[in-house]
Write a structure and sequence with these properties.
By secondary structure, the protein is an alpha+beta fold. Helix content is 27%, strand content 37%. The chain has an eight-stranded mixed sheet with strand order 1-2-3-4-5-6-8-7, sandwiched between helices. The structure holds coenzyme A.
Length: 165
């Protein structure tokens, strides 16, 4: 059993383990239109366990964040290739929202990518997803660009990024 990274009220924030993945997949199905294969979740956990974080209440998983590390052009005009954390997915079950769980997951996900010495972290978010955009702005992410028709249904995304250096 993983030890708590922090507590938010009665919620425990901790790292994900392989045995938790089905619960994560179920939350992803319930909370987001973007879904992935089981293999994708497994490979993300294998590659970056430090930034695959869960929120749990009374042994029930109610939220998660999973991230990747990538190399590429900076979102902050830094020269050359940089190491970037990428928030692949973050979600909290609807009945547990508004209790600072999302923010705590984000902070621990950011800590996880900082552990790998990432220079910056970025994510994509639907332009209509006001609550998520507000959460990212509260964490000092900035909107860097608008990605036209990024989602399968044609909606645009904002690319938002936070400088970690
Ligand atoms: C986005 C999401 C993860 C936020 O989780 P949460 O636990 O409700 O968020 P928190 O309680 O930690 O709120 C963090 C901040 O986000 C903002 N926020 C959250 N919900 C909000 C809402 N309904 N309206 C306005 N702002 C909101 C607030 O600024 C809040 O800070 P504050 O509490 O200091 O005011 C959650 O709404 C969710 O799972 N949504 C569906 C999945 C999703 O859209 N994921 C993001 C994909 S890019």
């Amino acid at each position: 059993m993983q030890t708590a990274l922090r507590k938010v009220g009665d919620y425990v924030i901790r790292r994900c383990e392989a045995s938790d993945l089905q619960a994560v997949i179920d939350i992803n199905m319930a909370a987001l239109p973007e879904h992935y294969s089981d293999y994708f979740f497994e490979s993300i956990l294998r590659e970056l366990p430090e930034a695959f974080i869960l929120a749990e209440l009374n042994d029930k998983i109610v939220g998660y964040i999973m991230c990747k590390i990538e190399f590429g052009f900076s979102n902050f005009r830094k020269l050359g290739f940089v190491k970037k954390g990428h928030v692949v997915s973050v979600a909290v079950l609807e009945e547990h929202r508004g209790k600072s769980i999302g923010k705590a997951l984000m902070v621990e996900g950011i800590n996880g990518v900082m552990h790998r010495k990432a220079d910056e972290i970025y994510l994509e978010v639907r332009v209509s997803n006001t609550s998520a955009i507000k959460m990212y702005q509260k964490l000092l992410f900035e909107i860097k660009s608008r990605l036209r028709s990024y989602y399968r249904d044609g909606e645009d995304a904002y690319l938002m990024a936070l400088d970690l250096s």
